[in-house]
Amino acid sequence: MERVAIIGVGQSEFGELWEKGFREIVLKAGIEALEDAGLEGKEIEAMYVGNMSGGRYLAQEHIAALIADYSGLSQMGIPSTRVEGADASGGLALRQAFLSVASGLHDIVIAAGAEKVSDVGSEMTTDIIASSADREWEGFVGATIPALYALMARMHFTKYGTTPEDLALVSVKNHRNGALNPKAQFRREITIEDVLRSPFVAEPLRLLDCAPLSDGAAAVILANEKVAKEYTDAPVYIKACTQASDYLALQNREDITTMRAVKIAAEMAYKQSNLTPDSIDVVELHDSFTIAELIAYEDLGFVEKGRGAELIREGITSLDGSLPTNPSGGLKACGHAIGATGIRQAVEITYQLRGKAGKRQVDAETGLSLNIGGTGATAVVTIYEIG
Amino acid sequence: MERVAIIGVGQSEFGELWEKGFREIVLKAGIEALEDAGLEGKEIEAMYVGNMSGGRYLAQEHIAALIADYSGLSQMGIPSTRVEGADASGGLALRQAFLSVASGLHDIVIAAGAEKVSDVGSEMTTDIIASSADREWEGFVGATIPALYALMARMHFTKYGTTPEDLALVSVKNHRNGALNPKAQFRREITIEDVLRSPFVAEPLRLLDCAPLSDGAAAVILANEKVAKEYTDAPVYIKACTQASDYLALQNREDITTMRAVKIAAEMAYKQSNLTPDSIDVVELHDSFTIAELIAYEDLGFVEKGRGAELIREGITSLDGSLPTNPSGGLKACGHAIGATGIRQAVEITYQLRGKAGKRQVDAETGLSLNIGGTGATAVVTIYEIG
User: Fold this and answer.
1) Is B261 in Cβ contact with A69 (below 8 Å)?
2) Using an 8 Å Cβ cutoff, are A343 and A50 in contact?
């Protein structure tokens, strides 16, 4: 396998982008990534696009061809492929792009992720997001995604003594970080009381335990190590990018306080990169709900099962802790632009490892990102290292 | 790159499968492929799934996780990835699976394609299929997919003298072949008069110029050459599997009688396989509309631009001609189960090269398949050879 480096990153703003179309936000992210890399579109050899539900949000499938067209890349005829795994779609695009360079097939590839959700109503949005879970066994009987995560939280409370205050601390931390990120959707701090006074969405999860669903796009340009050196003095190497699956419906899982796909993908990623959880300096993970961040601490091997809350209580995952997690603000404060999120995480890790993360900069030479689809049936773990 | 062989193939029936669910038809195709290969599910290392619009047909995204779950493959945690490129989704799944074995990453991978379209009404189906074209520049102003292909046909008539009778001959041939295929949706012959008396869908295209939209699934199992030999005495090698893009909207293309993505993908495939159009013995191509088959003859290099109709007039592409094309009956008679079609084509070529195609058997050692997305913005060309 060839060594693969990130040589350019870009992202649009995340949020309710009423005045912008899907094409515009994708193009903005792509152009920013090209400019960051200092290369021209015609040097790109292939494109992978992560998008969950263009069919329902935009009445548009064939999204990868659309983006190749609008960005001018179809003039060269390059292969452009959409991948989908609910809100892990961005991570899947990153992984397919990584594999296409690691295998020696291509030298320079772009991975993008995008979603435009604002143009449909909130009821339809709830239904679309529920299509990331099992429609026949979960959605049809009324389970929404917040409701399914609420079951996981409730079980975590019962088995391990995790509390609503622990969940609130996750949200408070991520908002504190997001306040330092110019591209975050919510750039303001909140308090534990704010979280605990916010209305229930699905008990015990309150409004401020839930990431927003956002419009947004992000892009990264990957290159073979040899080519990368022509474009950048600070290549961020991808040491591993692994993917695993779990049962789609919660009812089939042995333990709903664990995401088995995360554990499997993480174990593979550590093995492939010859790293251990201890050696990771910065983490971007999938806090679609606060409980998901605590479960991820455990399943990524940072702490043993059931003790995730200790990391947030003790400030270990704060910006000034020993394992800063979601320095960007995470999904909670950055916004969760579904298919874009997995790519946005790679953008943040790249900024951090380059030392270009501004006020939210941490001290880091290695990074890890975790992107999850739905309630964890798909997981992608990526490990990065500055060259 | 490692040599990649098809070691197992399977497909469900195609058609209006009212009594079967999406899961059942996918599972049927998958189990048939496993039995054909003589292996167990736990030997599969990864899965790629082609599906165009589960979000709208089934209110279900995250289709690859669903299939991994329902087939028991998520028990092993293997990566399962949906790819989408409109009705080229199956071809994209085949290509990603091919690349994952060719690169040495995996030894045994399954590529599946599936679509369940019957459960929504025909008006919605028309709109969903239109989402494979450019929604903002084409669909929004009323252009349907048949209407866009009608423009291509009209231009081909004007520039090259192709006639409605030529189109009808394509449909007659494909129905004649389909009548010999037990898994075809339409197993009856039709006449030129039947076609020319059928109602217009979008002038000059009539009902019998158009492939149906069908429910169906298909699966192929790919293996590294070394592994393949443990499972089969008749491996069908994939010599090349290439993909290219074109502008999504017809308005941006220089010439709407050519599908540039097909030309680019075909040229790459011939080059990679060290073969020429002359050396191809059997073809499965994307006759979503009769005009698409004639244009494909030209863009695949079997005849020069504008002279596609000669191949059908002279019987060259008939079952007993020198370049038998769509021996399965093609999309027209087999049915077009959108995301499944690219995989179904690989299934047919495999049967043909193994000499197991029953009454529709042709004499062939090399084969080619062409899978197209929408009006040609995505094209996948695959070249096969019996081992």
Assistant:
1) no
2) yes
**Cα separation, A357 vs B3, whole angstroms:** 44
The pair of structure tokens assigned to B181 is 């295929």
Q: Are strands A236-245 and A378-386 parallel, antiparallel or unpaired?
A: antiparallel
3-state secondary structure of A349: helix
- CATH fit for domain B4-121+214-236, picks 3.40.47.10, 3.40.50.1010, 2.30.29.30, 1.20.1640.10: 3.40.47.10
A86-103 pLDDT per residue, tens: 999 999 999 999 999 999
Question: Under an 8 A CB cutoff, do A377 and B65 touch?
Answer: yes
pLDDT score at A121: 82
The CATH code of domain B144-211+239-386 reads 3.40.47.10
Nearest to A62 among B105, B242, B374 (CB): B374
Residues of A in contact with B247 (CB under 8 A): 69, 74-75
Render B128-171 in DSSP notation, one character per residue: HHHTTS-TTTTGGGT--HHHHHHHHHHHHHHHH---HHHHHHHH
pTM of whole model > 0.95?
yes
Homologous superfamily, domain A142-210+238-386: Thiolase/Chalcone synthase (3.40.47.10)
pLDDT value at B121 more than 90: no
Mean pLDDT within B143-152: 98
Q: Which of B65, B80, B83 sits opposite A81 (nearest CB)?
A: B83
Q: Could B85 and A85 be called an inter-chain contact, meaning their C-beta atoms sit closer than 8 Å?
A: no
Residue-level pLDDT at B387: 85
Scanning chain A, the segments in alpha helix (DSSP H) are: 22-37, 54-57, 63-70, 89-102, 122-130, 145-160, 164-178, 192-197, 225-231, 260-273, 290-299, 308-313, 330-334, 341-354
Give CA angle at A32 (A31, A33), nearest 5°. 90
How many Cβ atoms sit within 10 Å of the Cβ of residue A75? 16
pLDDT grade for A387, boundaries at 50, 70 and 90: confident
What is the C-alpha to C-alpha distance for residues A208 and B280, in angstroms, rounded to an integer?
A: 61
Does B84 contact A63 at a Cβ distance shorter than 8 Å? yes
Residues of chain B above pLDDT 70, percent:
100
* Size of the A and B interface in Cβ pairs below 8 Å: 201
Choose among A65, A69, A247: nearest Cβ to B69: A247
Chain B interface test: which of A134, A141, A245, A381 (most B C-beta within 10 Å) = A245
In this complex, which of B69, B127, B242 lies closest to A249 when CB atoms are compared? Answer: B69
**Chain-centre distance of CA A147, in angstroms?**
21
Question: Using CA atoms, how far apart are residues A260 and A268, in angstroms rounded to an integer?
Answer: 12
A128-158 pLDDT, tens digit each: 999 999 999 999 999 999 999 999 999 999 9
Q: Which amino acid is at B357?
A: A
Q: Which residue has the tokens 């997690």?
A: A325
Domain boundaries, chain B: 4-121+214-236, 144-211+239-386
Above 90 in pLDDT, residue B69? yes
Contact B53 A55 (CB under 8 A): yes
Contact of B259 with B37, CB cutoff 8 Å:
no
The Cα of B357 is separated from the nearest Cα of chain A by a number of Å equal to 32
